[in-house]
Amino acid sequence: MITAADAGAHHARRFGTAATESSPVTLSAAPDRAEAAARAEAQFEEAFGYAPDGVWSAPGRVNIIGEHVDYQDGLCLPMAISHRCFAAAARTPTDRVRLRSAQDDRVLDLDARELTPGAVEGWPAYVAGVLWALRKHISGAATQGMDIMIDGQVPLGAGLSSSAALECAAAEAIDALLSLGTEPLDRVQATITAETDFAGASTGGLDQSASVLSRAGHALFLDCRDFSTRAVPWDLASQELALLITDTRAEHSHVDGEYTARRADSERAAELLGVATLRDADIDQLQELLGRIDDEVVRRRARHVLTEIQRVRDFDALLASGTVREHVAELGALLNASHDSLREDYEVTVPQLDVAVDAAREAGAHGARMTGGGFGGSTIALIEAGQAESVAAAVAAAFVEHGFTAPEFFLALPSEGAGQDR
């Protein structure tokens, strides 16, 4: 175990600063998948008084590179993580939907035929919304009644897409219970619709695609224009590398308004350049394109989107030409450039994200960047497998020095997408 006090002492020895006491932190592993599925099954039986028809789950995700480009038809490279959301469920011969959660005392009992956007609030909206979005696949004669117990193991508020994991686990369960036979992309689209049109949250589809379509040992190359995907080898463990996630535990503030503003700025940039989306702009003419934008803020937003899409192309090309180990320096440099762009041009970082990234780089990470929408959340660092504790210690020490809440750390393995567990 690495404690924040130990980390502070490490930092004091290295930089000559005084350490202060803080809460202990550890490198946290995801619960064993089989054990977590069995737990969800037992929770269902306790809540509803009978055994479920099955248990389904879907993972959270980290985006390796390709941030804030999905709504400009960009390219992204996410991967599923081993932390998952579990849904134990059973079909009933009614049209009543009963929802429970191991993390919340809220109880939802409603008529599936009366689902409408805005009728359900909180986490239940992300489950009910999936059923609502899948209606076009449901026969009019079929009853839609079901009981669902949710057990979410994806850390909340860390920018690891706990909501997408919830939606995608629900989609797997609903598809199986109602024998819909939908394709994976149908379920992806249903979960996107559930979040945007039913729950009222904005999403570009990256999170849901990663949660459903990912493969173990691989990243997912995602084209946000047509949602085409392909698996990209990303087996870090076999190459003695690791991806360290730092949940900064920074409070998200003004996220919705800031996110909307960034999206509007990027749309304004595309309009000024005369293209449908910035994906259509020619990166080879970057300076000429930026010279056509008079507004300095809009110009910087455009520069991030254009260069970030190119960084994904470069990252993908490196992985196609050799192993992660063979190109680790170049890959790390792209991660660094991505964060720097998000900090300076897109302005979506906060001090905790920047401190975590800077400390990881200083401690020997090949590259580090924020992941997710920003304004809080998590960072990732590509590191040697044996560096996990020392890099985490350096980040924790930097947080002590800055007076931040102690961060939490996870080691991420590229994991399998959504599916049935029991």
What does this structure look like?
- This protein is an alpha+beta fold and 422 residues long.
- The protein folds into two domains: 2-27 and 236-412, 2-Layer Sandwich (Alpha-Beta Plaits), CATH 3.30.70.890; 31-235, Ribosomal Protein S5, domain 2.
- 41% of the residues lie in helices and 22% in strands.
- It has helices spanning 4-15, 33-48, 124-133, 162-177, 184-198, 206-213, 255-273, 286-290, 296-321, 328-344, 351-362, 388-402, and strands spanning 2-3, 24-25, 27-28, 54-65, 75-91, 96-101, 104-111, 146-152, 218-223, 228-233, 241-247, 367-371, 378-384, 408-412, 419-420.
- The strands form three sheets. Strands 4, 5, 6, 7, 8, 9, 10 and 15 form an eight-stranded mixed beta sheet that branches. It has a five-stranded mixed beta sheet with strand order 3-14-11-13-12.
- β12 (367-371) and β13 form a beta hairpin.
- The radius of gyration is 22 Å and the shape is globular.
- The two termini are 33 Å apart.
Topology at a glance:
Blueprint: E1 2-3, H1 4-15, E2 24-25, E3 27-28, H2 33-48, E4 54-65, E5 75-91, E6 96-101, E7 104-111, H3 124-133, E8 146-152, H4 162-177, H5 184-198, H6 206-213, E9 218-223, E10 228-233, E11 241-247, H7 255-273, H8 286-290, H9 296-321, H10 328-344, H11 351-362, E12 367-371, E13 378-384, H12 388-402, E14 408-412, E15 419-420
Parallel strand pairs: 3-14, 6-8
Antiparallel strand pairs: 1-2, 4-5, 4-15, 5-8, 5-9, 6-7, 9-10, 11-13, 11-14, 12-13
Helix pairs in contact: 1-12, 3-4, 3-5, 4-5, 4-6, 5-6, 7-9, 9-10, 11-12
